[in-house]
């Protein structure tokens, strides 16, 4: 069985683009209040998934309610398992859903659970997430200048905002290209219309970004809070081809976690959380001024950790 990819809300589940991608497991216990059922139900759900799949990745927004995050960590501690990875994602809601879909796609490949879980941070760097907003007065996820904040109160104002990978904010006028920095690779664009029409995103932005495919979807309920307004159209663009995603993850150097023994990529194990041996050695090195002069001659270029 492939590693299970679970999410904390049905709104983080995007339809599969093919018949091979496994469905996401939805943690019903993550629902707020009495609908969730509390820690006991969370324990039961996660235990069942671990027994069925061997390893489980739970993808949740980094901005999820603290009570939910604490419950997930409490469940992991109570089960005393190193087969559960809690993957907090610092992306807008639609971007989080698209990242979860990519992990589901890769779960059927020959990646070990540790590599799949730690690949989330790598894939997030190649995901472009933004929105067209009717106001940025309450936007706190992206820097907003005083001028843009003041113009946000003018009737009919609209702004194009890119939250990831690099923040960008542009005030819109007319039907021209919003001018947001485009990905340097072909993408699939997922668009969720809220209180604003989606034509500017599906038209000018999609053409400027040379998007291969535009997929409409329902706006997540959490989007209004994340973006600070209910007048918006949210979008997220990512690599659509699973073979390219596979090559991207495969190209990164792997090592073994010195704690749980799982393979990982990057600087931290997603299952048991300690830094990789390479990252630990880097942190223990003395400053350049304190190192022997001979070290400079034999220095090797290190891989960038993300």
Describe the 3D structure.
By secondary structure, the chain is of the alpha/beta class. 32% of the residues lie in helices and 19% in strands. A six-stranded mixed sheet has the order 7-6-5-10-8-9, sandwiched between helices. A four-stranded parallel sheet has the order 2-1-3-4, sandwiched between helices. It is globular, with a radius of gyration of 21 Å. Mean pLDDT is 85; it is low at 278-305.
The helix fraction, in percent, is 25-40%
Elements, N to C (H/E): EEHEHEHHEHEEEHEHEHEEHH
Q: How many DSSP H or I helices? A: 10
User: Which stretches are low in confidence, meaning pLDDT under 50 for 5 or more residues running?
Assistant: 278-305
- Radius of gyration using CA atoms only: 21 Å
Question: What's this, in brief?
Answer:
The protein is an alpha/beta fold and 306 residues long. It is built from ten helices and twelve strands.
Topology:
Layout: E1 4-7, E2 25-26, H1 39-53, E3 56-61, H2 66-79, E4 84-89, H3 93-106, H4 113-124, E5 128-133, H5 146-151, E6 159-164, E7 168-171, E8 188-193, H6 199-208, E9 213-217, H7 223-227, E10 232-238, H8 242-250, E11 254-256, E12 263-265, H9 277-284, H10 293-297
Parallel strand pairs: 1-2, 1-3, 3-4, 8-9
Antiparallel strand pairs: 5-6, 5-10, 6-7, 8-10, 11-12
Task: Supply the key terms.
single chain; 306 residues; alpha/beta; 6-stranded mixed beta sheet; 4-stranded parallel beta sheet; 10 helices; 12 strands; globular
